[in-house]
Amino acid sequence: MSNTSPQLSRRAQGLGTENAFVVLAEVNDLARKGKDIISFCIGQPDFPAPLHVQEAGIRAIREGKHGYTPSAGIDPLREAVAKYMAGMRGGLPIRPEDVVVGAGAKPFIAYAILSVTDYGVGDEVIYPNPGFPIYESQITACGAKPVPIHLKEARNFSFDPAELERLITPKTKLLILNYPHNPTGGLLTRAELEQIAAILAKHPQVWVYADEIYSRLTFDGTFFSIAQVPGMYERTIISDGASKTWAMTGWRIGFISNPVLSPVFTRWVTNTDSCASQISQWAAVEAINGPQDAAEMMKKSFFERRDLIVGLLNKVPGVACKTPGGAFYVWPNVTEACRMIGASDSEDFRKRLLNEAGVAVLADIHFGSRVPGEGQHVRFSYAASNEMIEKGVARMAEFIRKNTAEAA
User: Fold this and answer.
1) What secondary structure letter does DSSP report for 257?
2) Short-list 362, 376, 369, CA closest to 333
3) Mind giving me the DSSP string for 6-25?
4) Contact 368, 149 (CB under 8 A)
5) Is the preceding omega at residue 180 within 30 degrees of 0, hence cis?
6) Is it true that the peptide bond before 130 is cis, omega within 30 degrees of 0?
7) Phi, psi (5° rounding) for residue 367?
8) Dihedral sign, CA of 61, 65, 71, 77?
9) In the chain, what's the furthest Cα-to-Cα distance?
10) Cα–Cα distance list, 103 to 54, 66, 253, 382 (Å)
11) What topology is assigned to 10-48+294-407 in CATH?
């Protein structure tokens, strides 16, 4: 690029990314060069969308449903979502007019921050670390101050409520919670959510963004939302979507519910992409209202794979892996493995594992700054076949054994 171009803004220069896509590009590049890669780096189901959902999309195309829709989404979808979200969350009083549909759940992260913080006045947003990288990226881009709250392995990757109490200031405007959690697979329990709500009761200025995109992939007990705790419904932005539950990542359908902010979110959609794809919206109506056997089959499959990968990883030299409560990620501790093979940290370990053993994972630093005292971790997405899981973990074990011998 010529050096005579006009300048980029500081916002554009500082904009973060989602490293899963960066590593995916690396993986694809190696695969193109003929290297045999087993990839655990991208967080999406490895199933097609259910057949009846595909048919609904085709039907929408054939019936000429190609135009704009209202920014908040088509009425049948808002009605279906309201009923679905309420049913999943203990009968919350969610009405169709409280629901806004977007092109995926991701844009609502920015819309929520933009709706409750002001630019450059020191408004603070507390978010989980490690966490989905777009939280921190969007907090900064929207001109608020990112305040990480550290997740601890000893607490099954939840945070200490006392730390939340310490971090909240009069400037805190939003708390982002994600459960089941990306990247650790951790699940906040009902008791923990009640503790969090008790702290927030003393700070009425703080909204909550409950990122519940993995709600249907909860393995331990019944899913419970912080919006179900008395006093929390009005101030909780509940975020969910079609991507993970019905394997519809590329269809781009997310939905959000809040009785106060839904008109504001609707205006944001009008200001950005007008509306979600009408074709995808009709497919999502079918996903929610139609048979759930495909979604249940996927959940069962992820549950079995979870137990398979955790069992295998815990047999790998220098690796210790907790059993996650949901989603389709594991977050093994590789501190000892790094020491054994002479890797400087998890990112060095990840790069060597990819280039020497052909196994693609993500490192902890792709999900925020490393938590002090928590050691080194990598993330596996186990949205992969049993055969791939067995092969990939065997390659990793062999890679560690071989390099340990060489280091010795």
Assistant:
1) E
2) 376
3) PPPPHHHHH----HHHHHHH
4) no
5) yes
6) yes
7) -125, 25
8) negative
9) 68
10) 18, 15, 5, 25
11) Aspartate Aminotransferase, domain 1 (3.90.1150)
Per-domain residue ranges of the chain: 10-48+294-407, 67-289
**End-to-end alpha-carbon separation of the chain, Å?**
47
DSSP characters for 71-112?
Answer: TT--HHHHHHHHHHHHHHTTS----GGGEEEESSSTHHHHHH
Question: By the 8 A CB rule, do 305 and 380 touch?
Answer: no
Q: Which amino acid, 210?
A: A
Percent pLDDT > 70 in the chain is 99
Residues 6+ apart with CB under 8 A from 216: 88, 223, 244, 245, 295, 299
Residue at token pair 């607490």: 155
Tell me the CATH number for domain 67-289: 3.40.640.10
Tokens standing for residue 359: 């196994």
Read off the DSSP letter of residue 128.
E
DSSP secondary structure letter of residue 65: -
Give the pLDDT confidence score for residue 2 in this predicted structure. 55
Asked if 161 and 203 count as a contact pair (C-beta separation under 8 A), the reply is no
Determine the pLDDT at residue 1: 55
Task: Count Cβ neighbours within 10 Å for each residue of 271-298 and write b for 16 or more, e otherwise.
Answer: eeeebbbbbbbbbbbbbbebeeebbeeb
Read off the pLDDT of each residue in 171-196 and give the average, rounded to a whole number. 97
Question: What CA–CA distance (Å, rounded) separates 47 from 381?
Answer: 14
H or E element that contains 177? strand 172-178
- Which amino acid, one-letter code, is at 297? M
Q: Edge-to-edge strand order for the sheet containing 329-330?
A: 329-330, 378-381, 362-363
Residue 46, Cβ density class (10 Å: 0-12 exposed, 13-18 middle, ≥19 buried): middle
Split at pLDDT 50, 70, 90, the class of 147 is very high
C-alpha angle 52/54/55, rounded to 5°?
Answer: 60
Place of tokens 């049913």: 87
Contact assessment for residue 404 and residue 340, using Cβ atoms and an 8 Å cutoff = yes
For residue 247, the tally of other CB atoms under 10 A from its CB is 22
pLDDT exceeds 80 at position 81:
yes
